[in-house]
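Quick entry, no commentary yet.
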Amino acid sequence: MKQKSNVFLPKILGYLGLLPFVVPTFFLFYDYHHLEMWRHFLITYAAIILSFVGALHWSFAMLLHDLPQSKQRWSFIWSVVPSIVAWIALSIPQFYSFFLLAAFFVLNLIKDKTLSNIVELPNWYISLRHNLTFVATTCLLVSGLLFSTGNVMFSI
């Protein structure tokens, strides 16, 4: 018998987890004197979360018994790729980090959607991942574009 999952908790935790994306992005527009700090906060948190969403595929590979063996193998392999990318993002100039992290959040969402076509995931999972990825990626892209232009709208 399939156990009914509590949808509220993962959703509230997921949406609260967007605050460290949104807050630094907001302050990049208003706090000119601390731009480096806000960029650092955003990039390091994004790297941590990218590692987290990649690691979900390790769990999928272990726990989804309907997953074909070849897909299981690729899920294990894929699960470590986002962590390596996150590490690279923390090691390269910040400008490139924003775009690298954004690209891999989108790529990880695509991997999640592909997996959901093969096995049954909770019905709320893909829509939640889509919403979270959209906000996180938007914050990273806006911050990267802001970084590239050097514009700050208001200074505190």
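second:
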Amino acid sequence: MKNWVNKRRKSISEKVEAKRKAKEALEELEKAEELTESEETNELVDNDEQVEGEKEEFESFFKEVLNKFPKKISATILSTYDKSKAQAEKILENSKSQFDEIFDVFLEGVDEETKRKTHATVHAASLTAAIVGCSPIPFSDAFLLVPIQLTMMGRLHKIFGRKFSENLGESLTRELVIVSLGRGAVGNLMKFIPAVGTVAGAAINAVVASTITQALGWVTVKMLNDGEDIFEDVMSFKGQFNMLFNALKDSDKS
């Protein structure tokens, strides 16, 4: 009888212990699920904030650039804004996965917060450049990149707390923008062909406009992050820009 009682007690004790462990395991699982949900929520919030931040940066950037253009040019760009923006966004989306790895090399060592801010500015500049590239303005869009790129470089310098000389920046960007004229000229000529020619020509220029702007932007970020002065190390700047832009063109061909 005594042995039976002891066995019974042991059995009950084991069941109680098993239930306790099961309860603890369930509580741990619930905590893990809550933590995962919290992390997912935070990630979604961060993504939403980033998207919203990029949207605000673009709107501010685009408005600033339009104010630097002659009124007739701004009016022409605005007249086809919705169509040009939709086309420009597709172009940037198509090039994103293709060029991201190349750009990442120029972002090594940049902290996450600075990376986020510079990404918003370079994206705003690239989208603006692509929109202008999609606009029906023959033989002018290449040089309209200059005020876009000056605005971008000025904002990037501000992010790093550095001074920016717009006069020196203008002479530098005017020289670099020549790189886009080779392929861009084809698109400009095609804009004089009615209907289809305009669309095809715009697409070529938008790709060139956004690519050259992104290349300029990330070289600027790299040099600022490395503590280099763009205007004192002009040869280094031009060399890095040409190297990156050629890498982008080679990637585009492949």
